[in-house]
Each structure stands twice: as C-alpha cells, then as structure tokens.
Amino acid sequence: MSSKAPARSLRHLLGIAELSDEDIAAIFSHAEMFKSVLGRPIPVVPALRGKTFVNLFFEASTRTASSFALAASRLSAQCLGFSLAASAVRKGETLLDTARNIEAMRVDGVIIRHSMAGAARFLSERLRAFVVNAGDGCHEHPTQALLDAFTLREKLGTLEGRRVLLVGDIAHSRVARSNILLFRRLGARVAVCGPPTLIPPRVEELGCEVFYRLDRVLYEVDVVNMLRVQNERIGAGAFPSVREYRALFGLTRERLARLARSAVVIHPGPVNWGVEMDYEVSDFPHALIMNQVTNGVAVRMAVLYLLAGGHADEDSPAPA
Ligand code: CP
After folding, report:
1. Would you call 98 a catalytic residue per the annotation?
2. Which of 52, 64, 143, 151 is catalytic?
3. Ranges for the Aspartate/ornithine carbamoyltransferase Asp/Orn-binding domain (predicted)?
4. Which of 8, 91, 283, 303 is 20 to 30 A (C-alpha) from 56?
5. Which amino acid residue places its CA nearest to atom 4 of ligand 1?
C-alpha cells in the first residue's frame, strides 16, 4: 500500500472542523495501513525515527495517553511522559511556560489534554511544535472521533445514511461534540438523547435531532454511542439519581435485547458500569468498545505520522 499525503500538510490537530475531507481520508487510509503493521510479529516501522513528542496531560487518561505513547513507539519515535503531580505546575508554573520549556528540549510535537476549552489552540498559536488536542474541557476530542468513525467504517463499511444516536451527558462531553461533527461530515444522520439538564442549548445547530425519551428512538438506530456521565464536570442538580438515570437513559440488559439486529454499540471509555450501561453490554457481540481501543493506536499513528511530516522523505511508511 502506498503512502498518500493529504492535499496540504496537516499543521496541528485541534478539532474536527479544521480538518478537510482530504485530511480525514488521509488519516483513515494511513490508519488502515498502520493497523496492518500492528498485526505483524514485529509491529514497528522506522517512519518517525528521531522524532520526539510529549504527552502533556493535565487531566487523567488511560486510553488516549497510552495509545499516543504506543503509537509513537510503533513508529520508532519517542513520546515523553509528563507527570502533572511531579511537575513544576505544582509550584505555579503556567501552561505556556511548561510547554515552552519542554519545547526547548527539541520536542517535535505536543499532545495536550487540559480542562480548559481552547488550551490546545492557545499552545498551537505560540509553539513551533505541532499540537494535538487530546481533549480540551467540554470542547473537542478529535482523535476519539477519528478512531470511533474508523471503527464504525470498519464494521459497517460506511457511515453514509446510517442513523447514529449519542446517549447521555451531551453537555459535558467533548467526545459528543467531535463525534457529531465527524459523523455528520461522513454522511450519518445524527441524533442525541439525554436528560434536558445534560443537553446543551442549541445543540441542534450542529445538525442533529434531539430526543429526551430513549425508548422513542433507540430501537431504530444503526449505531448507539453511549457516553460517560462526566461526574467531575456536572454541577449539583443537573444529574438525576443513578437509579433514575439508569432507568431513563441507561443501556440496560432489557434495552440491549431490543436493539435492531445489526445495531452496534460504542463507548469512548471509561465506562460507569451500572450507570450508563449494564455490564452485559461488554458481552454483546455487536459491542465495539475494545475494537475502539485497539484502533486508537493505529489512528494515532496516522495522526502523528501526518503531523510529523513522515511522508516527506518516505516512499512508504510501512515497508512489507
Ligand atoms: N476515551 C478517552 O479519552 O479515555 P481516556 O480518558 O482514558 O484517555
């Protein structure tokens, strides 16, 4: 498979809206190629040898931080970890000073997760290194959307014309915003459903329908995108009791049994089992939750490869 670069080179990955259709197609085609690399006995290519990135995570992460670190190592690059608790941020050093000092150590790319919406853009306007948004407040989580769409395309062939329902805490979910934007770009018909207190105002302006009763819409959709209840961001009073939430909006064993035969279920993780989903969903044959995690490495390899200019001096990033 040959390497196909996007029409213009990708400078940063801050959000879905900034990506052209060519960028998205290039990320998917490279992710497919890198997924085949990951299936080899030695799942490493020399494509980004000598490059160095930093995982600048100001919020907790298991999947995103680990898969960026793994993606870098599979491309023969280095990914420096950053421990917030052990850093000089604890002494009052600012985000910008932290990033500039790390960049001064000759880092090619900064992967940032931060509680403030706009943190990734803020750094992208001030650093020479490329910046990847790994989640900024309630704003966007573009690599999650890319890996979710990649996983759905792998299973369904296309998102064109598919009905996708995002369920739960839409208001505090950066995944929801990125996924709505990307699924719509790929031709899906998108709807959201949740308690009125967890649906943001004017969400329909993103091009999605809004439902407040799960049982009215759940059994008609092709994709159920369950979302984590973001306890750390929800204000007092916005969340019903766990019991009430599960009864009204949870993907329970009973609801699972009534889904369309071909319907698939995704969730970005981490899951609050017994709240947004019953544990039985993990055994559901059409649950793609672990496929999402596996694909996260290939999609993030593609993102790092394209941002780090891996195509500039390589005929093929994945020689057989
Ligand atoms: N989906 C996701 O962003 O998971 P982490 O918080 O573990 O990175």
Report:
1. no
2. 64
3. 161-307
4. 8
5. 63
Element (H, E) at 224: strand 223-226
The verdict on pTM exceeding 0.90 is: yes
Model pLDDT for residues 166-178, shown as the tens digit of each residue: 999 999 999 999 9
What band does 2 get if pLDDT is binned at 50, 70 and 90? very low
Domains 16-141+293-308 and 142-292 share a fold: yes
74 tagged catalytic: no
The CATH topology of domain 16-141+293-308 is Rossmann fold (3.40.50)
Q: Give the pLDDT mean for 23-35.
A: 98
4 catalytically annotated? no
Cis peptide before 270 (omega within 30 of 0): yes
CA distance to 34, 297, 318, per residue, from 2 (Å): 12, 20, 8
Give the contacts of 133 (CB within 8 A, at least 6 positions apart): 12, 13, 14, 15, 112, 120, 121, 140, 141, 142, 143
Ligand 1 mean position to 61 CA, how many Å? Answer: 5
Query: Is-catalytic flag, 114?
Result: no
pLDDT at 240 (0 to 100): 75
- Give the residue extent of every domain in the chain: 16-141+293-308, 142-292
Site residues for ligand 1, CB cut-off 6 Å = 61-64, 135, 144, 268-270
Residue 38 pLDDT exceeds 90: yes
CATH class of 142-292: alpha beta
Is 113 flagged in the annotation as binding? yes
- Where would I find the H helices in 113-233? 119-124, 142-156, 174-185, 214-217
Gap from CA of 1 to ligand 1 centroid (Å): 30
